[in-house]
Amino acid sequence: NWWKLNRKLKNSLGIVITRFHKPIIFTAGPIMQLSLQTFVG
């Protein structure tokens, strides 16, 4: 029973990760570039 629950949780977690993966890239990309520019400059 616990194993089934764990599998369900992992599947839902994977769906959430794939759903929020692109927005994270779109928001983290510019922030990373900005921090890199300030660090180098």
Write up this protein.
By secondary structure, the protein is an all-alpha fold. It has one domain. Helix content is 95%, strand content 0%. The protein contains one helix and no strands. The chain has one helix at 2-40. The radius of gyration is 17 Å and the shape is rod-shaped. The mean pLDDT is 79. One of its GO terms (molecular function) is olfactory receptor activity. InterPro entries: 7tm6_olfct_rcpt (IPR004117). Pfam families: 7tm_6 (PF02949). It is found in: Membrane.
- What percent of residues are in strands? under 5%
Q: Total helix count?
A: 1
The geometry reads as rod-shaped
Total beta strands: 0
Order of helices and strands: H
**Largest sheet, described in full?**
none
Spans with pLDDT under 50 lasting ≥5 residues? none
Provide the gyration radius in Å: 17 Å
Number of domains: 1
Task: Measure the end-to-end span.
Answer: 56 Å
Oligomer: single chain
Arithmetic mean of pLDDT: 79
Structural class: mainly alpha
**Helical residue percent?**
over 70%
Membrane topology: Multi-pass membrane protein
Subcellular location: Membrane
Pfam families: 7tm_6
Main location: membrane
